[in-house]
Specification:
Elements: H1 5-15, E1 37-41, E2 44-47, E3 52-55, H2 70-81, H3 91-103, E4 109-113, H4 116-131, E5 135-139, H5 156-160, E6 177-180, E7 192-197, H6 213-224, E8 227-231, H7 243-248, E9 254-257, E10 268-272, H8 274-277, H9 296-307, H10 311-335, E11 343-344, E12 347-348, H11 360-367, H12 371-381, E13 384-385, H13 402-421
Parallel strand pairs: 3-13, 5-6, 5-7, 7-8, 8-9
Antiparallel strand pairs: 1-2, 2-3, 4-10, 9-10, 11-12
Pyridoxal-5'-phosphate binds at residues 115-117, 120, 143-145, 198, 203, 231, 233-234, 258, 268.
Length: 422
């Protein structure tokens, strides 16, 4: 091999803050040097030293059919030969919008953007424009990307860096953001434009909603005339064919998508019914635009991936996730490790604690007890790549075979035993 992870990461740190393009990748919360990826295929990634890992990061969600799926690669190749961006409408983006609208009951129109952050940022602007109100209510520990107004008490990288707020975000920028504890139905008044929620929170570890909680949010919004925003950047087209709307049988007013809908290329989308979307320029007066929005490579990749995701695929994905979650749980139980492996559909979490955390404070107590970095490095040494931070979840994909899952479980058994005897 021509280079090593250490050598490459030293180069990276000279020219990029922390050596990374997004903070959680820096290994800041687990210590050590990140593996520098050279390529990936199916359920595996290879680093620049030629080491192979079973990958549960999967780009934090987009890789639901596995890396470099032949259909997705072929779609990108074919699209790229027709040009990479035009600044004019394309059939591919129309088909993408149709696909999203077809899958989600109540969703009538979408606007394509280039990331999940853009989707949520635009969604709150839309909610404020549509209601004429200012306040946005969000839950502590829920992550909605890095737009200023939503950077109060976020999960994911915000939690990993130990930031409650964020330098550079002015008091004015978050003055209309109210942060409330999760799994408690908030009181909303007539100043509230929108309540934004991850339908299944997956950026403070996996913290399932209490039974009926999502329905109660819908009712609370109806009482105050506030809009309910589902941030489905993770749950969208992962929980089910129709995302969280189908999973919970609850229809929000505005949806945000990202990750899965881009097949690994930069894409996001937000949408609503026709009346709400009529507020967006050029129909209405809420401005939102993007040079690369609806990019033909991204829509081609996303469509190719979505077309692989039929009901049979969701059943298979859930079976894979169940094998992983149940296997890990019994390994910890056998080793006498205080750990729980929550699962919601295809999403799998991990907390080194005895009871399921129900909110951000409980999730933080479970995540910051020093156990995760040990487990993470033990697994990495055995060729299993988990997210390098305790607030992320595992993303098993359709490419993870029973053998991959079983190798993961036996690696976990070794690591749990070693941790208990240390
Ligand atoms: C990843 C994520 C975002 C932000 O998406 P980016 O594409 O990283 O900007 C927003 N909301 C949730 C729930 C996410 O998991």
């Amino acid at each position: 091999m021509s280079t090593t992870n250490v050598e490459s990461f030293e180069r990276a740190q000279r020219v990029m803050p922390g050596g990374v393009s997004s903070p959680v990748r820096s290994f800041g919360s687990v210590g050590g040097t990140p593996y520098i990826v050279e390529r990936a295929e199916g359920a595996h990634v290879w680093d620049v030293e030629g080491r192979r890992y079973i990958d549960y990061v999967m780009s934090y969600g987009p890789g639901i059919v596995g890396h470099a799926h032949p259909d997705v690669v072929a779609a990108i190749r074919a699209a790229s030969e027709r040009g990479t961006s035009y600044g004019a409408p394309t059939l591919s983006e129309i088909e993408m919008a149709e696909e999203l609208v077809d899958r989600v009951p109540g969703l009538e129109m979408v606007r394509l953007v280039s990331s999940g952050t853009e989707a949520t940022m635009s969604a709150i602007r839309l909610a404020r424009g549509a209601t004429g109100r200012s306040t946005i209510v969000k839950f502590a520990g829920h992550y909605h990307g890095h737009a200023d107004a939503l950077l109060a008490a976020g999960g994911s990288g915000v939690a990993n860096q130990g930031l409650s707020g964020c330098d550079g975000v002015t008091a004015g920028a978050v003055a209309d953001t109210v942060v409330v504890p999760y799994n408690v139905v908030p009181e909303l008044d007539e100043t509230v434009a929108a309540l934004i929620v991850e339908p299944v929170p997956a950026n403070m570890g996996l913290v399932p909603p209490e039974p009926g909680f999502v329905d109660q949010l819908r009712a609370a919004c109806d009482r105050s005339g506030s809009l309910l925003i589902f941030d489905e950047v993770i749950t969208g087209f992962r929980l089910a064919r129709g995302g969280a709307t189908e999973w919970f049988g609850v229809t929000p007013d505005i949806w945000c998508f990202g990750k899965v809908i881009g097949g690994g290329l930069p894409v996001g989308a937000y949408g609503a019914n026709r009346a709400v979307m009529a507020n967006i320029v050029p129909l209405g007066a809420v401005y939102q635009a993007g040079t690369l929005s609806g990019n033909p490579l991204a829509t081609a990749a996303g469509l190719a991936q979505l077309r692989l995701l039929d009901s049979a695929a969701y059943a298979e994905l859930e079976a894979i996730a169940t094998r992983l979650a149940d296997g890990l749980q019994s390994v910890f139980d056998d080793a006498g490790t205080a750990a729980i492996v929550p699962r919601v559909g295809p999403l799998v979490g991990l907390f080194f604690t005895t009871g399921q955390p129900a909110n951000f404070d409980e999730a933080k107590a479970a995540a910051d007890n020093g156990m995760y970095p040990q487990f993470f490095h033990g697994m990495l040494e055995r060729g299993v790549a988990l997210a390098p931070g305790p607030y992320e979840v595992m993303f098993p994909s359709l490419a993870h075979s029973a053998a991959d899952i079983d190798r993961t479980i036996s690696a976990a058994a070794e690591v749990a035993t070693a941790m208990e005897s240390a």
